[in-house]
Write a structure and sequence with these properties.
It is globular, with a radius of gyration of 18 Å. The protein has a single domain (10-74, 100-229), classed as Metallo-dependent phosphatases (Purple Acid Phosphatase, chain A, domain 2, 4-Layer Sandwich), CATH 3.60.21.10. With 230 residues, it is α/β, with parallel strands linked by helices. Helices cover 21% and strands 25% of the residues. Strand 5 (152-159) and strand 6 form a beta hairpin.
Length: 230
């Protein structure tokens, strides 16, 4: 997202999300990397935290690590916190079926799929498809959310480049603030919808039903949506 006005869509996204938090039962915000674009500059982090305070003062705000957090200096080796613990450590034992979920959503930063021309042949995309996609499919991941590219695109439920029943729906949702990427799309068969506007997405879910919607910042219209049931 970034900090307004340096990132032109940041303010409209914050305003729309703030309105949702004020009027609807929003339980959590997910920001999947490239958080402030501060690149180590403390004053920009302060400005970003002030910008999102009307949201974070009311609901949890969960973030992931993007490349602008990880590699802005030297790949994270200045992190003073150190490792969580020795390899194989954990927070505790599985508490049982009461923690089981029927819908599984993952949120890495880099795209596993994108039909944007410049992403064809991207080695990181190919590596993610080779290394993680089989595991996601094996464990029945329903939605794979990612950012990095400043655009929007949603796939059909798919596996290994083909639309399949009970596949993984991939959603590129990198259009929340930074300058948009106006790249050409290849028109891949698995690509259901793509857009190049500032927007945000919303997910409503219970144990049997998930509703996903994509909202334009300019008028808050829902321009893409789908439902999952289990």
């Amino acid at each position: 997202m970034g900090v307004a006005p340096a990132q032109p869509g940041a303010k409209s996204t914050v305003d729309r999300v703030r309105a949702q938090v004020s009027t609807n039962h929003i339980t959590c915000i997910l920001h999947i990397g490239d958080i402030s674009y501060a690149r180590g500059i403390g004053v920009l982090w302060n400005a970003f935290m002030t910008q999102i305070d009307p949201i974070t003062s009311h609901v949890p705000y969960m973030v992931g690590i993007g490349n602008h957090e990880y590699d802005h200096i030297t790949g994270g080796d200045k992190d003073p916190s150190g490792a969580l613990g020795p390899e194989g450590s954990n927070y505790g034992n599985d508490s049982g079926d009461e923690c089981a979920v029927s819908m599984l959503i993952v949120g890495p930063h880099r795209p596993m799929y994108s039909s944007i021309v410049r992403n064809v042949g991207d080695p990181i995309k190919d590596m993610l498809q080779k290394s993680l996609e089989p595991m996601f499919y094996q464990y029945h991941v329903d939605i794979n959310l990612f950012t990095h590219i400043h655009s929007y695109e949603r796939s059909c439920p798919m596996y290994q480049g083909q639309c399949v029943d009970n596949g993984i729906t991939h959603a590129l949702i990198g259009m929340a603030g930074h300058n948009l990427d106006f790249d050409t799309y290849t028109g891949a068969k698995w690509s259901v919808y793509h857009d190049q506007q500032f927007d945000y997405t919303q997910i409503s879910v219970n144990r049997t039903h998930l509703h996903y919607s994509y909202h334009r910042n300019v008028d808050d219209a829902v321009v893409d949506h789908f439902d999952l049931t289990k």
